[in-house]
Protein 1
Amino acid sequence: MPPFAFSNWPPSLSEDQLQELTLIATSYALSHGLLYLPVAAKQPPAPSSAIHAPLSLFPSPFPRQLFEQAQKLQHIYNTLYARIAMDEDFLDEVMGAVDGVGAVDEFVGQLWKGWKQVRDEDAVPLQLGLFRSDYLLHSTSDPPSLKQVEFNTISSSFGTLSDRVAGLHRYILFANGYYDSSPHLKAENFPPNNTTAGLAQGLAAAHEAYNVPGSSVLFVVQPGERNVFDQRWLEYELLERHSIKVIRQTMSDLAQTASIDLNTKVLTIKTATLSTPVEISTIYFRACYTPTDFPDSAAYELRFLLERSRAIKCPSIPLQLAGGKKVQQVLCQPGILERFLTPADASTSSFSQEDISELRASWMYMWGMDLNGDEGVEKALTNHGKLVLKPQREGGGNNVYKASIPPFLRTLDASERQAWIAMELIEPPEGLGGYLVRAAGPEQQRREHEGEQADKVVRADVVSELGIFGWALFGLGKVNRDEEVGWLVRTKGKDSDEGGVATGFSVLDSLVLV
Ligand code: ADP
Ligand code: MG
Ligand code: MG
């Protein structure tokens, strides 16, 4: 048993107790908007039913010291990624279509070329990042250490739902008499999770900085998005707490509704339900992170039109590029972190050597397939059992693991390989259990209807991934404001390589600090 787990956790339950607690949990989830759209609802524009999001019945233990360390690191990461997004030379070199990974990755190359076209027209005064830094516990040391999986700069999801899962777990434990049943189960070990308020505060800060009365925030979303409630909660928070209106559009909606004044660069949206066109202050992308969001060249042109506008982008194309796995790998090279965190320019704030060492200590070893001719590939082939290979993609399901690496590398030609990085696998502690609850699929619902028991909850050995949310408002070489705003726990069965709630690998969870 790893040192931070505590005995009899999660509690062992009889079948009846398990079914009863599952009902209590799913009822809370359905009542509190901890929701997801079912697969069948993908097509119609106005779905009439929802399912609860996949969830864990009990919170997972997490070492307090490492949780606090991740919260502290978030401030450094907010500034680091803001500065990367403002460093054109660095991004050209690492992600560009001439010298960087954009030369061998079509999607990255397209985004970079579009950005290059528009970036010289006018200095963009401000941009916004809503970030999520993801970590796993690494157990080869005792006690375990915190290791970063990746840093997300676009469409970081599950902020508002994770806030609600923390509420669900406090309720389940309190209402069912688990509080005080162990010295670990007391209020001070359940940290607040106010991610909804925190992320909305970031969007509101951008909107206020734009400072045009009557303007709205634009959410750019994917058609048929199943994780729509996670996004809607942010919309309602902006309206209710900040009196800011949100317009929600897909890229194909925007092809009809968006226009930009080429002199003022003001972006306006005109829709059937709006009486007059509305000026956009801030564009929040919950789409455009994957090639399928760009079915044709017109979609890229539209994305570049949005980039050209004077609305504050969350993220801008350079900030999206900064989130590439290639950037994460290049940051590991000697001197690169110092370039961003201890700048020579005395007017720019500097971080301490301890901060830099702490950040580095949270990284796994990474290298590019472009390392010294064939050396990168050779190293990946030799060590494949301890590695994951990653391309420049977001959204889960894109990585290649362990034994699949050698045959996969052989399918790529020398130039295609350059778009991939190798990362040593984090080895999470073993021996932790959890109860994972998923909404029954259509087939199970049919069986349930016929009186059969649908199998919704399973006990499994699990691995949990912590995400810390933060935001930064920055531009013209300066970070104006940054905040650490909340957290997310996703838990998966220990034998699944990937995580990802949307991709069906994991469930939403929360934590109890130990
Ligand atoms: P994406 O941007 O698609 O989410 P990630 O880098 O987060 O890509 O990888 C997806 C999942 O793969 C992670 O959530 C994690 O579960 C697993 N994973 C990624 N890198 C590692 C690693 N170095 N060690 C162990 N698991 C990893
Ligand atoms: Mg990602
Ligand atoms: Mg991820």
Note: The mean pLDDT is 93.
Protein 2
Amino acid sequence: MSKFWSPLVNDLVPYVPGEQPKMANLVKLNTNENPFGPSPKVVDAIRAELNDNLRLYPDPEGEALKDAIARYHGLNQDQVFLGNGSDEVLAHIFYGLFQHGQPVLFPDITYSFYPVYCGLYGIEGKTIPLTESFEINPDDYAQPNGGVIFPNPNAPTGRFLELSKVEAIVAANPDRVVVIDEAYVDFGGESAITLVDKYPNLLVSQTLSKARSLAGLRVGFAVGHPDLIEALNRVKNSFNSYPLDRLALAGAVAAFEDDSWFKATCEGVIGERDWVTSKLEALGFEVLPSKANFVFTRHPDHSGESLARGLRDQGVIVRHFNKARIDDFLRITTGTADQNKRLIEVLTGLV
Ligand code: PMP
């Protein structure tokens, strides 16, 4: 703290991202990145964009990308909002779409950026405990609120809430915006994007960081009714009028044009995730059913902390949360076949 700090900054409790270790040769399974890499067509498109035009500002509307997303999902361009990763999209949602003065509802446990945004904007957040089996119960979200948000699949549990239950939450809150954060939906879940034309209060956010393997490019988007998108654009243009740089726009458009790469890598991750699940279960781990690119797992005889430490000592990094109710668990990102074999080999020696 310094005398130059605003009191607003003194009170902030920022999000701490997962570690990005500098050492090579680690098996890095801690931040839910995609092990397969982006489409080569994305890399080509970014290379082609490395030219003299970099002296020019990018398109402030990001029109080519909005168009690619709209066409991909059968929507209109005015139903699409772009941001620097879905984290930025979510920040604008908290500012522009949630009613201040009533609590925003989100699960406990869930993505730990939500309470951070509440703190940043001085919004009250109310956490709703997950059920015994770490599921979201739709009935819990039919209570007065300033908005609702949850990831589907949820993080870090990986559990997917079926679409009919998502729809029940949206329908129960006709005067509030319900946000479905679909960062991990492409690994076996079902998107609520098909419902946006039916519900003007539904906003779905997605990212290119996971299934499209572009975490380093920072591209996220939200889709919903044009009125919701307009509010988000007003917030964005009050911060920064350029949603994405030229390289990110070019790469992201190319990502939507290579559907076969996208589908093949998703299938690859799903196959590997299911292999890891079966091996963990054979070692006595309990594994929550996952529709994400990670598994959430605990062992009856070993603490999460000791397993995370034991893995790290042998060069395998996974995520352990020091948080009540889940401190027994490890969140393990699905890696390549070789990385997953190494993970299981090390765990076999530890349990
Ligand atoms: N939502 C959830 C649930 C996440 O786990 C993440 C990744 N940390 C994000 C959103 C943000 O992803 P990005 O900013 O890379 O799009």
Note: The pocket of 4'-deoxy-4'-aminopyridoxal-5'-phosphate is lined by residues 85-87, 111, 151, 155, 181, 183, 207, 209, 215, 220 (CB under 6 Å).
